[in-house]
């Protein structure tokens, strides 16, 4: 490794700024639809380089062995020389770090048996379809740059998704559930996750359409997390802020919500979006986005940090070696409050929203639409009839002002976030929160 470090530094030192990423990954996928099992696996090794010259980036990549590092650098410098920009980078100190994570392999036969047992556990009257998908991934990344940085890190995860469709007459409903582990398949309760999706699908057969109008609502930790991620987190990504695409672009240091609202993004949290260093070799740092209703920070790459005169906080992520790092979230949390959970529900009338079924956000205007997986009528603090197809709409800033109550509980959910045609593992979460005057449709 020492000889490679010296050689890479020799090559990269010929440029004002250049970086090299090496990546080796392997993955295994099992999919079960009803009683049909599919399996695929594979591995890939690749290399990419990025050069900053004339204020412009040049990027080139290839699978390992197809092109030398020197040839890729020649391609990248040609591309950077085509433009004349103003890009510069926030400074970083040279360091050498080796970060490893322990992943316990599971025998393939044992994993298939566990997934089949989970699938069989989803069988029930009125269940018409069962789908499980499980991905295991292990990746080693090496990062070198012309400033003397060398980072090696191993990452891995298992991600399980379960989906169940129920049918009663003309009514069809779907229940879904997810689980994750950073230590391998053995860290996942496949049967328990599958049963959650089955029970949800069966419950929803009895659900009624929601009323329309404005209501006080209680969001469960998953819905709270989705709001923190979709409505606030994306608006705090510095590339969108710089391009004036975010409603928060001119609001740093200003109040954007009431004092009950505090939101952070933390790559160091032991959750599905965890990493030690981003894909620019910057340590991932917990970043306060909103503190007691005041906008406090943005998520940065080295480039955006320089432009905003901020510190890099390790939020430049790439899906794999063949993609350019862009500003991304990791684990985004709405911070818990001091109100006991049962008191959050202490209202005469309202609606309880559980789970996320889809939605959209326009971070320029601040408008959002979220659809809950299931919902319940709240009457005098207790839960009543179940409802389906409940959609909430609103504006980011007004909704943060309308938060009435924040619970002292906390929960998170895993997911895969898409941006710039790239997908990366993330988590989001928070407590139960109560929000007034929410439009329901």
Topology of this protein?
Layout: H1 2-12, E1 17-33, E2 36-53, E3 56-63, H2 69-81, E4 96-99, H3 108-121, E5 127-145, E6 150-168, E7 171-181, H4 190-203, E8 213-219, H5 221-233, H6 238-242, E9 263-265, E10 287-291, E11 294-295, H7 302-307, E12 316-317, E13 326-327, E14 331-334, H8 341-344, E15 349-362, E16 367-379, E17 382-387, E18 391-395, H9 396-401, E19 403-406, E20 411-419, E21 422-430, E22 433-440
Parallel strand pairs: 4-6, 8-15, 14-21
Antiparallel strand pairs: 1-2, 1-5, 2-3, 5-6, 6-7, 8-22, 9-10, 9-14, 10-11, 12-13, 15-16, 16-17, 16-18, 18-22, 19-22, 20-21
Helix pairs in contact: 3-4
Please characterize this protein's 3D structure.
- This protein is of the alpha+beta class and 441 residues long.
- The protein folds into two domains: 2-206, PmbA/TldD fold (2-Layer Sandwich), CATH 3.30.2290.10; 213-440, no CATH class.
- The protein contains nine helices and 22 strands.
- The strands form four sheets. Strands 1, 2, 3, 4, 5, 6 and 7 form a seven-stranded mixed sheet that branches.
- Helix 3 runs parallel beside helix 4.
- The longest helix is centred in the N-terminal third of the chain and has 14 residues, at 108-121.
- It is globular.
- It starts with a helix and ends with a strand.
- The relative contact order is 0.14.
